[in-house]
Amino acid sequence: MTDRSQHRLGELMEQSDPPFEEVMSCVFGIENHETRTYLVLRQRPGSTIDELADALERDRSTVTRSLSTLRDRGLVRRDRRLLDGGGYVYQFTAVPVPETKAMLHEALDAWAATVHEVIDEFDGAPP
């Protein structure tokens, strides 16, 4: 986890019932607009960058960066579709929610295991 996502985790832990979107942003270390891109893409599988930009009311370059981050985190898949007149366009699909949930659980379990190790290794001596 990055310093930023660790800070966000602290904020998240202060909430008794955090919304899924905040959990996702925190655990994956992504921005809220990237989480929103994922959620919109869940409703519009196979969307192009232009279609997403319209749906999100964002410029194309912002959507492209969001999709790149989401692909890096394994949350979005990209497929190339050939056009009838030649050329191609990329279509994007969010990974299924159960897969995303499994990745969230895995990331949190790994973090918790690290925290448990830190606790177990602490001997009380000053640093």
UniProtKB/TrEMBL annotation:
Q: Which Gene3D superfamilies match?
A: Winged helix-like DNA-binding domain superfamily/Winged helix DNA-binding domain (1.10.10.10)
- According to the record, the segments passing through the membrane are none
Q: Where does the source fall among the domains of life? A: Archaea
Q: Name one Pfam family in it.
A: TrmB
Transcription regulator TrmB N-terminal domain span:
25-82
This chain's protein is named Transcriptional regulator, TrmB
